[in-house]
Specification:
By secondary structure, the chain is an alpha/beta fold. It has eight helices and six strands, in the order βαβααβαβααββαα. It has a six-stranded parallel β-sheet with strand order 3-4-2-1-5-6, with helices on both faces. The longest helix has 27 residues. The radius of gyration is 18 Å and the shape is globular. It starts with a strand and ends with a helix.
Length: 247
């Protein structure tokens, strides 16, 4: 399930846990937010900093509840101290597996797809790790920021907007989209249940579409390339984490 809105992050996922939802993605901070005035951007960055500090302070609770925190986006755009907080949260919760909470931070789909093609796939061809004929939709999917996640079944768009603001555009071709006028900060349990009921009405047609999708198995060359890519990303987070705990 994906949620478009970056308000109160921690107050909503308990509803998902109680309903047996295994994964939730929150659009916490768009790259487009950097275009706002400096004071507003600074306030949003400070809010993000405090939220990740709060998560770290509650890491025992996260472990007890089995909550794994994942963060994806162009983290190079964020201040170093926030990157360290993010790395710490991801590392200390990575063994938890009851529910996965994803935060899209410094994210847009355009940046995600551009990064997957330009900085990952094209570089892989240049390095002779893969060949041009290896490039297909499945390879692009596996090179996205969301490579560890399944496609969302339900996307909730709050605030009365009927645009998706460049959120998970590659991933939501078969997603049920629920628009609601309520602001994210005011989004209640009843609103959440209404979204779930709406999804249940959409479920049959969505399943029919999904059954028509036949995943393509990667050849050995591409599989090795993807393995190296994922290992490289994990090492990058680990290095930031080690820097954080040593400072």
């Amino acid at each position: 399930m994906a949620e478009r809105g970056g308000g109160s992050w921690t107050s909503k996922w308990k509803w998902s846990m109680n309903l047996g939802i295994a994964e939730v993605t929150v659009y916490a901070f768009s790259i487009e937010n950097f275009k706002r005035n400096k004071e507003e951007v600074d306030n949003l960055i400070d809010l993000m900093r405090q939220k990740f500090k709060d998560l770290l302070e509650n890491k025992k609770k996260l472990k007890d509840d089995g909550i794994c925190i994942r963060v994806f986006g162009n983290l190079s755009l964020l201040p170093e101290d926030i990157c360290k907080l993010i790395a710490e949260v991801m590392i200390v919760t990575r063994e938890n597996n009851r529910i996965f909470i994803n935060f899209a931070v410094a994210y847009t789909s355009r940046d995600e797809i551009t990064h997957a093609i330009k900085d990952t796939i094209i570089q892989g061809v240049k390095d002779s790790d893969i060949l041009p004929e290896d490039i297909n939709e499945d390879l692009i999917t596996d090179c996205l920021y969301t490579y560890k996640s399944s496609y969302p079944n339900l996307l909730i768009r709050t605030s009365g907007e009927t645009r998706l603001s460049d959120f998970l555009m590659w991933q939501i071709s078969n997603t049920c989209i629920y628009f609601i006028k309520v602001l994210w900060s005011e989004f209640s349990l009843w609103n959440f249940l209404c979204a779930i009921f709406y999804y249940q009405r959409c479920y049959s047609s969505l399943q029919k579409n999904k059954n028509n999708l036949k995943p393509i198995m990667h050849n050995t060359r591409v599989s090795m390339f993807i393995y190296k890519l994922y290992n490289k990303r994990d090492i990058a987070i680990e290095k930031i984490y080690q820097s954080a705990i040593q400072s």
